[in-house]
Amino acid sequence: GLPLLTLSLADCFLGDGIEPILDAISVCRSLVYLNLRLNVLSGIMGIELCRALDASVSLTDVDVSSNDLSDDFGRALGMVLATNETLWKVNLTRNPLGVASGDALLLALKQRNDTIVELGDISEDLLGLGLQNRMLISSCLDANREGLMLKQRPTEVGDFGLHSFKWEIIDDPQDPYGRPPPCEP
């Protein structure tokens, strides 16, 4: 028969019932795209998901958005990304990931991974990763998209170019504090 290339189980609310599927994913050698969005994945299932991702030799695009994956998952995913050279995209949006996840993902991206180009909406959704982590992760993802190898990248936090982010004052005519608008230069 034909090999399984795509598996979409989005919006199935599988929860812990996903474990046998994760076992199958870990041994499937042809699966390229996996969508597990909105499946109430949390706790140990996040760790089992990372085990399956670590064992996979073919997955390039994984969507785990809108689950309940926490920092235990985020730290485990950071370890997976430190050794995985196949994954290109992992959508993490709408998961309660915190600063510990941001630290683990940043460490993997700075030191080990030059293949991931997307982790979801870093600027608008994954706020729990922490502002500095989000900015530095974004810089690493940009470097990956540009094809920069790890040895070609800056290594110090200050070298990642926080200055390249656009900072601006938003002029709000409905300012509740009645402050005047900013002066034009």
Overall pLDDT confidence: 86
Helix count, DSSP H or I runs of 4 or more residues: 5
Order of helices and strands: EHEHEHEHH
Strand order, main sheet: write it out. 1-2-3-4
Strand content: 5-15%
Overall shape: globular
**Distance linking N and C termini:** 68 Å
Radius of gyration: 19 Å
Note the main sheet: 4 strands, parallel
Overall number of strands: 4
Oligomer class: single chain
Low-confidence stretches: 162-167
Q: Label the structural class.
A: alpha/beta
Helix content: 25-40%
Briefly, what is this?
The protein is an alpha/beta fold. The chain has helices at 19-27, 44-55, 71-83, 99-111, 131-145, and strands at 6-8, 33-35, 61-63, 89-91.
Topology:
Elements: E1 6-8, H1 19-27, E2 33-35, H2 44-55, E3 61-63, H3 71-83, E4 89-91, H4 99-111, H5 131-145
Parallel strand pairs: 1-2, 2-3, 3-4
Helix pairs in contact: 1-2, 2-3, 3-4, 4-5
